User: Which sequence fits this backbone?
């Protein structure tokens, strides 16, 4: 019987396990949390509302392959995500767009700047804040400085405890300034949420009797490696594929140093009212210690409940007992990661997959796409 070991039951590990089992592999899936799903885990709260335990997760993708794959395991309803940000006491669209401009600037000034932006970039353009700040027109520069301070500066300090310039340029580019009145957060063709939730979708992906899942189990208590490229499972040499989706520094017992992460704390509150805020996510770039307030019922498409659940999201250090949510996107960290990845190449049956093992800011669809490709390459080789 062909066998494989998969460490981590997040989307990367679950997709890998599903594809391997489809090909007749007996899969040992090991997860240290008491549940499957990794960071997309959701659950019904006391109020009966689907809550997301590890922060707001909104599905969006340009990939038809990923969408078709997931539709085998869940029904979806269309959900177009929008975000507001509290700036100078007003709630305005984020990413900052022409509507945000009208809401925050006096009418005449807003009209002049709008015209200048349209002349410079054209309607619909998406401009990274770093590029907007380089515009030679002084009115646009003034706007760029305003947006930089009110949307990026303090938010980035709260989120990363760093200035935007200290992080890789793509961090700022993820939330561009949008020269348009459209308020959607994403522009992907498919934007939808699983009707029964992500956990149920993951459950269905693991239905094969060939997949054996063990929860609350640190796989590194069972897996060991020697210096000659051999891996061992429960003390026995193992030559089967080992798909690893945890932190790479941890797999190598931090021999080369620790890879930095940022973590989050969530404060969940149930409120005896139908609705707390008009949309799912409101950002607080400037005031408060939290960066966002999430109201979960907006992600379910169901509004009939008389109560509502919200969560305050607080960025924090990745200390003992915390979850490694975000790899810190800086060159020196990527360089350290590359050293670990080089070391991993000495182990022919080890495959690194997912956000932690690849130390990448992957969205859900990117993780699934990468897992589908990696496993089909593996199967093609055998
Ligand atoms: C706050 C937040 C919001 C996000 N919002 C979105 C969004 O809106 N849209 C979107 O597309 N993406 C979003 N993402 C990204 C999304 O969470 C990831 O793309 C996806 O969940 C990554 O899946 P993964 O399997 O790679 O990692 P994870 O979900 O982290 O899964 C890894 C699993 O491995 C387990 N593990 C690690 N080490 C061991 C070990 N030694 N033994 C056993 N198990 C182990 C962990 O417990 C975990 O369950 C968000 C991420 C965060 C942090």
Assistant:
């Amino acid at each position: 019987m062909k066998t494989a070991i998969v460490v981590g039951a997040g989307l990367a590990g679950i997709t890998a396990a599903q594809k391997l089992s489809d090909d007749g592999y007996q899969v040992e899936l090991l997860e240290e949390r008491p549940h499957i799903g990794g960071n997309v885990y959701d659950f019904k709260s006391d109020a009966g509302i689907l809550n997301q335990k590890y922060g707001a997760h909104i599905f969006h993708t340009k990939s038809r392959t990923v969408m078709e794959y997931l539709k085998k395991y869940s029904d979806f309803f269309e959900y177009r995500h929008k975000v507001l940000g509290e700036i100078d006491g007003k709630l305005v669209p984020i990413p900052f767009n022409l509507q945000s401009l009208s809401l925050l600037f006096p009418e005449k000034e807003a009209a002049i700047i709008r015209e200048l932006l349209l002349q410079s970039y054209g309607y619909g353009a998406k401009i990274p804040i770093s590029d907007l700040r380089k515009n030679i027109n002084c009115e646009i520069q003034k706007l760029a400085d305003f947006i930089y301070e009110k949307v990026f500066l303090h938010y980035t300090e709260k989120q990363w405890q760093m200035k935007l310039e200290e992080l890789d340029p793509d961090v700022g580019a993820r939330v561009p300034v949008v020269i348009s009145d459209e308020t959607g957060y994403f522009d992907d063709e498919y934007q939808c949420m699983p009707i029964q939730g992500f956990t149920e979708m993951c459950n269905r992906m693991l239905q094969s009797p060939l997949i054996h899942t063990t929860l609350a189990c640190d796989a590194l208590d069972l897996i060991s490696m020697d210096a000659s490229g051999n891996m061992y499972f429960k003390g026995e040499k193992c030559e089967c594929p080992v798909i690893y989706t945890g932190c790479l520094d941890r797999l190598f017992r931090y021999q080369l140093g620790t890879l930095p992460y940022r973590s989050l704390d969530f404060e969940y509150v149930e409120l005896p009212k139908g609705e707390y805020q008009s949309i799912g996510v409101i950002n607080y770039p400037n005031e408060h210690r939290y960066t966002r307030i999430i109201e979960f019922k907006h992600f379910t498409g169901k509004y009939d409940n008389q109560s509502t659940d919200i969560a305050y999201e607080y960025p924090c250090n990745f200390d003992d007992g915390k979850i490694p949510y975000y790899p810190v996107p800086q060159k020196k960290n990527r360089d350290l990661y590359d050293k670990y990845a080089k070391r991993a190449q000495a182990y022919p049956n080890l495959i690194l997959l997912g956000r932690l093992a690849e130390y990448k800011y992957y969205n859900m669809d990117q993780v699934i796409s990468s897992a589908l490709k990696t496993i089909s390459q593996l199967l093609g080789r055998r």
